[in-house]
Amino acid sequence: MKHWTEQANRNNLRIIDHGRCQLCGADTNGGLRECIEKAAFVTHLHEHELGIEAMTIFLSTDAHALSHGEIHGRWNNHFHLTRLYLILVKKIKWNYNLSPKLSQAVNQYKSGHLDEIISNPPSLERGLTTVTDVEKVSMTDYDQAIQIWAYDVFMAFQAYHHIGKAIADLFTQYFL
C-alpha cells in the first residue's frame, strides 16, 4: 500500500500543513497531516475499553477515508461507502473478517464498472462533523459522536448511495 503522501501526489493534491484540514475542514492547526494523525488517534482511542472490533473503529476509518479520498486509491470510496451502507443502513455488525469479503465484492463489481468513479464532494462539503469534533467528546459520548460523524460523511456521498447498495447486494448475496 502506498503512503498517503504518494497517493496525494499521484492525485495532484498539494498538501497544506497549516490551518484547517484542506479536505474536510477539521479544526486543526497543522492542516491535512494533523487531521490524519488525529484520525488515527481517535479511531483507536478507546479500543481497550470497547474492544478491538468495536463498530467505532470501522465507522471512524470509513468516515475519515471517505472525507479524504484524494489521499487514497481509485476504489477507496467504493469500499468505504459500501461498508458505511452495510453498517448504517443494513445494520450489519462488522468485524475484521468481513473486510476481505467486502474487497472481493468490490473487485467483482469493479469488473463490470471499470470506468465508474465515486467523486469526492467539494472540499469542506464532506459532512458537518469532523475528527476534531469527535476528539472533543467524553468517553460516554464517544460512540454516538463517531456514529454522527460517519452518518454525516455518508450523507455527503448521497448521490452515490445506489453504488454502495449495489456492492452491498453483491456482498450479502455471495459473501455473507
Task: List the SSEs and their pairings.
Elements: H1 4-10, H2 31-44, H3 47-50, H4 55-66, H5 76-89, H6 98-110, H7 131-135, H8 139-156, H9 161-174
Helix pairs in contact: 2-4, 4-5, 4-8, 5-6, 5-9, 6-9
Molecular structure report:
The protein is mainly alpha-helical. It is 57% helix and 0% strand. It is built from 9 helices and no strands. α2 (31-44) runs antiparallel to α4 (55-66), α4 crosses α5 and α5 crosses α6. The model has no long low-confidence stretch (mean pLDDT 92).
Biggest sheet details: none
* Poorly predicted tracts of residues: none
Radius of gyration from CA coordinates = 16 Å
Figure out the total of helices.
9
Q: Count up the domains.
A: 1
The total strand number stands at 0
Q: SSE string, helix = H, strand = E?
A: HHHHHHHHH
Mean pLDDT: 92
Gap between N and C termini, in Å? Answer: 26 Å
Shape: globular
Fraction of residues in H or I helices: 55-70%
Query: Beta fraction of the residues?
Result: under 5%
> Pairing-aware structural class of the strands and helices?
mainly alpha
